[in-house]
Amino acid sequence: MESTKSGVLRYLGGKAHKAPPDLSNLVDDCIAQMREASFFRQVHITFPITREIDGIALAGTDLLLRGVDIARHLSGCGQVVLLATTLGAGADALINRWKRAEPTRSLVLDACATQLIEEFCEKIQRQIWKEAANSGLTATWRFSPGYGDLPLDVQPGILEALNASRTIGLTCTENYILLPRKSVTALVGLGGMTARNTGGCDNCNLYYTCKFKKGGNSDEC
Prior knowledge:
Strand order of the largest sheet: 3-2-1-4-7
Shape: elongated
Order of helices and strands: HHEEEHEHHHHEEEH
């Protein structure tokens, strides 16, 4: 609970030990509300990959991963795990319900949902790493559409490959926005360099955009 709360406060631009009592209590209340409203669901499937002239192809799908950054991220990998997670429509509904009545609560609920989906992704990522290790493989950190130069237009292909609409109720708009909004798609390479598993800013996919690094607070990430 405390780590979740600290994460929410970071999204709100504050720190746990400096949060005024009224904000601290509001965050506690909103975390409880969001947990109750959320329906945590995920699907992940492993695909062999081949390197084509135009990008990285996933066997049995029409998906092509284009870009220098994803090619570098999957260097040495022979497989990729596609992953989709969502908090469900209830999370979006709760945030929207408070937008007019109490905008501050809506803002805090949004931060809570963002933190909870991140924690859920971390949990599934650790599961994937464990499965990889049991098979004698190394695994990369997860990489999402929009990171680096991997375009958002791969979203429909990822959702189709995972049959995510049927399995977890996840779709996307024509502008590639995921619905429900508090959802994440990502991929994890298998068989890559062990160094990709190490933490730290240099190996982070958000290295160039991290607000904590820019503010000199990378230790809080």
